[in-house]
Structures are given as C-alpha cells and as structure tokens.
Amino acid sequence: MTELGCILRLARNDFSYFFRTKWLMAILLSLHLSDMLVVALTYKNFMTIDYFRFFVPATVIMGLFVAALDTGRRIWLAFREGVIQYYLSLPISVNGVVLAYLLAGGLAALVYSTSLLLIALLVLPAQAIWTILILLPFLFVLAMGLAGISASLAAVASTHGEYFFAYQQIVQMLLLTLSTVYYPIESVQKYLPSSLIGIVSANPLSQAAEAMRQYAFAGNPIQPLALLNILIASIPFTIIGAVAYLSALRAVQRKGKL
Amino acid sequence: MHDIIRLVWFDLKQELKPPVWIMLQWLTFTVQLFIYGAIISQLVLATKIANYQEFYAVGFIVMMTFEVGSHTGRHFVEHAHEGLLPYWLSLPISRTKLFLAITLQGGAELALMLGVPLAITLAMIGNLTIVSVTAAIATLFCLGFGVAGLMLGFSFIAFKSSDLYTAVVTGLSTVLIRFSTVLYPLIFLPSGYRPVAQLSPLTYGSDLVRLILGFDPSIMTYDPIIAVAVLVALAVSTLGLGMFLLQRLVEGVKSG
C-alpha cells in the first residue's frame, strides 16, 4: 500500500472512532441541539436583538470547534494507551501519522457541523444555501487549525496527561468567550478594552460565525477578504499543531516514551 | 468517624495535590461572569430582567452545584471501573460508613468548588443577611446531595455498560440545565418547554436560591415551601436509593 493509502486508512480509522464514541455523541448533540432549539429560542424572548437568528448560525461553528478539539483527546488517548507505539510500527512516516490525525480531525468536525447545519436550515431559513458550499472548504481549513490547537495541547500535556482536559477547557472557554459567537461585536466594543477587541475580531471563530451569519443565512454577497481572513487565522494553528505533534512523536521514536 | 474521615481524605487529597480542577472551576466562573455574563446582559431588555449579570451569576452557581453533584455519582462509577470500589467493599467498615464517606466527600468537594464563586456572587449582589446566606448555602447543598444521589442511583446502568452510563448522564445533565430556570425565568421559555422545566429539580433550586438572595419574587415558578419540600424530598429519596444500592453491591463488582 502506498504512503497516501496508509494515511487515508489511518485517517478513516480515527474519523470513525469519533462517531463511534457514544457518550461523546450524546454530549455534543444534546449540547448543540439544546443550545439551538432551547437557549436561542428562549433568549430571543428577552433580548434587544433577534437572538435566535443571531445564535443559530453560530451554533454550527461551535459544533465545528468542539468536534475539532476532540482530536486532541484522541491523540492524548493514543499516547496514554500506547496506541501511538503501534502507529509508529506501521509502514507510514511520522509526518503521515500527523497528517492523518489532522485530516481526520478536520473532516470529523466538518461532517458533525454539517449535520448541525442541516438542522439549522430546518429551523432558520437561509437566504443563500449555495453559499454554504463555498464556505465548506474554508470551514474544513478552520477545523484543521482547531484540531492543530488541540493536537498541540495533547503534545504539551502528554507528560502530565491528566492536565490535558484542564488545558482544553481553558482554551475552549477563552476562544469562545473572546469571540462573537455569543454576542455581536458592538456589545464587545462597549465592554472590553481595545486590546481584547482586537483579539475578538481576529479570533477565527468570530470570523467563521460572522461568515455563516452574513453570507449563508442573511444572504449578503461573499467578501473574498473575509474568507482569506479565515485562512490566515486558521493555517498558523494547523502548522503549530502539526509541529508540536510531530515533535512529540519524534520524542517517542527516540526515547520510546515522552 | 475516624474511618469515614480517612476515606474522605484518601479520595479528596487527589483533588488537592495540586488543586487544578478547583482553580479551573474558579477561573471558569470568573471568565463566564465577568466577560460572558457582563456582555450578554447588555443585550437583555432591562424591562424584562433588571440585572441579568446577577441573575446569571446565581444560575452559574446552581450549574456548578449540579456539575459537582453529578461528578460525585460519576466518580463512584469510575471507582467501580478502576477497581477501587471492590477494594473499599472489602474493607472492614460497614456499608453505611462507606456511603457516608462518599456523601461527605461530595459535600467537601462542593464546598471547595463553590467557595470562591459563591463569595463573589454574594459580594456582587450585596445587601445580604446571615440568614439569607445560610439558607442559600443550605439550598445549594440540598440540591447537590439530591443530584449526587440521582447519579448514584443511575450507576446501576454502569454495571452493564459504563459507556451507556456516561452517555445517559451527560445527555441528561445538558437537558436538565437547558430545560430549567437556571439561565432564564420560566415565563420566557416557549410554552411547549415549560412543563418540562417545571419538572426539573434545577428549577426548584435556582428559583429558591434567587428568592432567598433577594431577587424579584415574581420569578418563582412554585411556592417557596413547595420548592423546599421538593429539594429535601429529592435529596432524601435519591440518597436513600444510593444507600440501598450500595448495601446490595457485592465485592468484585466492576463496571462494564
């Protein structure tokens, strides 16, 4: 089998593992569906904006984010349970293992968020459904970037495995809170200092949520610069994650452990 | 009593050395309250909820109580899975003492996790009395014990499949929080959801804590006496069920 074939098989294995984890599916679906169909609908009744219209598109991005972050948990498990030793014994390069995990993480997040998107389309009519098809490749790159963040955390925490979930929770909380997923940028500008407003605007989650709201659901024409910004904000995370995971794997190859 | 304290400390010291999870809970609360809560409250119509940040602070405390309570139940299952429970069952102590140790450990964990967030919330709300603070803490503990007992009651599922148990418990947790008055008063829930929210134990807990801390009484879903009765009944009945199940567990049990 060629290297590419091995990478794809490894990616398929990791991809299917994500969807076969019953408890994870129960958490993710109950969380995002209830956010969409209960929280957004209820907040709408006492807010100054139509919060349902505002929050439902963002829920899709939240789903993408949380599913992509699960890549780190799978990497962490592979380190902890020695599966990584098995992967390293396969006729596949270390770079190939890294690529397979990032591909699987990105794809699993994209498939999961697309299922949320289909539900969102049922409850909130979109003005430009075909625009979503243009957004999907950019969301895939974003998911790879988010998987990269998670892979870095798994690599950093691999020597203190139990802290991985603490790191993950901190990153998840900060990236979501300092974004425009939950609130419009105008509200953020009224409250946060200017240094943090810059972070909120540059946050890839803000950009993706805004793209989903403006282009897919509101039907505004796509701005190429906005899509480019998603790429610029996501690709560095993918590279950092790949390098961190690669270094961890090389350390395992050299020393037999981390 | 000495045996119980040793067992409680045996389990609790892992949480304290170092107290990563406790600090993380405090950090989460601070970020959620002072960033998310503050920004989202700007979007809330003041005519509907006067101060949403304070409303949210109490809701978050109730959510934390729920999480710690359900963690106590999950912890019990993890112990069964990892082989610690059979070891405990083989110790020369009665099942009642063992159950008390598990319950007290949950209570101590709840006190540690809630200490700082509750102090911040109380300071933010202000204008409190010793009676109101004590009553709010008692309500939270009652709710915490009730949830812990509920999750312990579910633990029998884990002896068939721990994966299924985690799926049921985590799915149920999310639904119980969303379909309750933790994040919003009942009147704003769509009418179809209200009957479900009226059954959630978190509705009784959060409404009662808010009433005690001086929020507008019109947000109450039920009469406060009914809320107190339900919370006490929940704690007593689910803890009773947990104790009953523990009496019937045999050594060598392992979660699937």
Summarize the model shown.
Chain A is mainly α. Chain A contains 11 helices and no strands.
SSE map:
The complex is a heterodimer of chains A (258) and B (256).
Chain A (H helix, E strand, L loop, with lengths): L2 H18 L1 H22 L7 H30 L2 H7 L4 H30 L5 H29 L6 H14 L7 H7 L2 H9 L1 H14 L6 H32 L3
Chain B lengths: L1 H15 L3 H24 L8 H31 L1 H7 L4 H31 L4 H29 L3 H17 L15 H6 L1 H12 L11 H25 L8
Helix pairs in contact in B: 1-5, 2-3, 2-5, 3-5, 3-6, 3-7, 3-9, 5-6, 6-7, 6-9, 6-10, 9-10
Outline the structure in words.
The complex is a heterodimer of chains A (258) and B (256). With 258 residues, chain A is an all-alpha fold. Chain A has one domain (3-255). Chain A has eleven helices and no strands. In chain A, helix 3 runs antiparallel to helix 5 (94-123). The longest helix of chain A is centred in the C-terminal third of the chain and has 32 residues, at 224-255. With 256 residues, chain B is an all-alpha fold. Chain B has one domain (2-248). Helix content of chain B is 77%, strand content 0%. Chain B has helices at residues 2-16, 20-43, 52-82, 84-90, 95-125, 130-158, 162-178, 194-199, 201-212, 224-248. In chain B, helix 2 (20-43) packs antiparallel against helix 3 and helix 5 (95-125) packs across helix 6 (130-158). The longest helix of chain B has 31 residues, at 52-82. The mean pLDDT of chain B is 85. The interface between A and B is large, with 37 and 35 residues.
Percent range for helical residues of chain A?
over 70%
Spans of chain A with pLDDT under 50 lasting ≥5 residues?
none
Number of helical regions of chain B: 10
Secondary-structure element series of chain A: HHHHHHHHHHH
Strand content of chain A: under 5%
Structural class of chain B, by secondary structure, is: mainly alpha
Stretches with pLDDT under 50, minimum 5 residues of chain B: none
Radius of gyration of chain A: 19 Å
Rg value of chain B: 19 Å
Largest interface: A-B, 37 and 35 residues
How many domains make up the coordinates of chain A? 1
